[in-house]
């Protein structure tokens, strides 16, 4: 594998940092290649501004400034795609694109903060996954937008490695929610939307109270998952163009009848997903 490992934690000596070190070491020992983006160490700027797009911004004023004329409206999606095509995206964004172009596997590792990724990692996604690159890519034959199982990052697999403070209460009936559903915006709305195959996330629970024995077990689990990543397990999300959705993007009436909510977009092994004719 060629792995891009993206880390979001401000303390390299943290549990998250130690697990990253163990995981990267295991991958390299197994003959895999790893390139890292340690966002805090890089001083990554998480904020999208017109400066990301250079001369591709609408209007004569160029990048946004305090005295920018009111008529110069920044259309982020359109400006980002123009900058992508013209090669004028910010240098740090282009460097991340080079890493993604090289990788066949993307690992995002982070502590779960307020049921989501830290702001710096959200900003990495916001600035790097621009229109025309990760999303907004069209099939040249049909003109249909490629997404949810296809897209600009198709052909890659993605894994979220998450440290969670809670030791219990995670699951379908847990107070904190099922992790796959908690992470739905990342797993389904980002990984799957852009065409990446979504590995079941690795969760380290009770992270704030983990003792040495607990750490060794967590590190062992992570190493094993990383080295078997090509074979899964993967979240069996439904493909946009797999026949389960109608032209409005709604599940057809005969698909998973009675199911609703986030879980309806996952094919459940052993469950009759479609009514028989």
Describe this protein's structure.
This protein has 277 residues and is α/β, with parallel strands linked by helices. It folds into two domains: 2-235, Rossmann fold (3-Layer(aba) Sandwich), CATH 3.40.50; 243-277, no CATH class. It has helices at residues 15-29, 39-42, 76-86, 91-102, 119-128, 179-182, 184-192, 212-227; strands spanning 2-7, 33-38, 105-111, 157-163, 197-198, 202-204. Strands 1, 2, 3, 4, 5 and 6 form a six-stranded parallel sheet that branches. Helix 5 (119-128) links the parallel strand 3 (105-111) and strand 4. Helix 1 (15-29) runs parallel beside helix 8. The radius of gyration is 20 Å and the shape is globular. Residues 1-226 form the Flavodoxin-like fold domain. It holds the Pfam family Flavodoxin_2. This is NAD(P)H dehydrogenase.
The helix count comes to: 8
Uncertain regions: pLDDT < 50 for 5+ in a row?
A: 63-70, 270-277
Using the alpha-carbon principal axes, give the shape. Answer: globular
The quaternary state of the protein chains shown equals: single chain
Class by alpha and beta content: alpha/beta
Described by strand count, sense and barrel closure, the largest sheet is:
6 strands, parallel
Gap from first CA to last CA = 43 Å
| Domain count | 2
Question: How many beta-strand segments?
Answer: 6
Strand content: 5-15%
CATH class of the largest domain: Alpha Beta
Secondary-structure map:
Layout: E1 2-7, H1 15-29, E2 33-38, H2 39-42, H3 76-86, H4 91-102, E3 105-111, H5 119-128, E4 157-163, H6 179-182, H7 184-192, E5 197-198, E6 202-204, H8 212-227
Parallel strand pairs: 1-2, 1-3, 3-4, 4-5, 4-6
Helix pairs in contact: 1-8
């Amino acid at each position: 594998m060629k792995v891009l490992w993206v880390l979001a934690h401000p303390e390299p000596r943290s549990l998250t940092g130690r697990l990253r070190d163990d995981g990267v070491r295991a991958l390299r020992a197994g003959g895999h290649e790893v390139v890292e983006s340690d966002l805090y160490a890089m001083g990554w700027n998480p904020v999208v501004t017109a400066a990301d797009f250079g001369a591709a911004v609408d209007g004569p004023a160029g990048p946004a400034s305090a005295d920018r004329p009111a008529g110069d409206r920044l259309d982020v999606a359109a400006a980002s795609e123009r900058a992508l095509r013209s090669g004028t995206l910010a240098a740090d964004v282009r460097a991340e694109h080079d890493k993604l172009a090289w990788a066949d596997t993307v690992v995002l590792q982070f502590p779960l903060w307020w049921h989501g990724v830290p702001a710096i990692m959200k900003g990495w996604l916001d600035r790097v996954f621009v229109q025309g690159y990760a999303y907004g890519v069209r099939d040249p034959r049909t003109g249909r937008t490629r997404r949810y199982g296809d897209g600009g990052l198709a052909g890659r697999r993605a894994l979220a490695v998450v440290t969670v403070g809670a030791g219990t209460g995670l699951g379908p009936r847990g107070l904190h929610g099922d992790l796959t559903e908690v992470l739905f915006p990342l797993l389904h709305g980002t990984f799957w939307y852009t065409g990446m195959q979504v590995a079941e996330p690795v969760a380290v629970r009770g992270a704030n109270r983990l003792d040495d024995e607990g750490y060794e077990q967590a590190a062992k689990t992570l190493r094993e998952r990383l080295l078997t990543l090509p074979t899964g397990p993967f979240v069996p999300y439904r493909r946009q163009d797999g026949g389960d959705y109608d032209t409005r993007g709604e599940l057809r009436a005969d698909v998973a009848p009675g199911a609703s909510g986030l879980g309806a977009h996952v094919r459940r092994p052993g469950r009759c997903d479609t009514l028989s004719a």
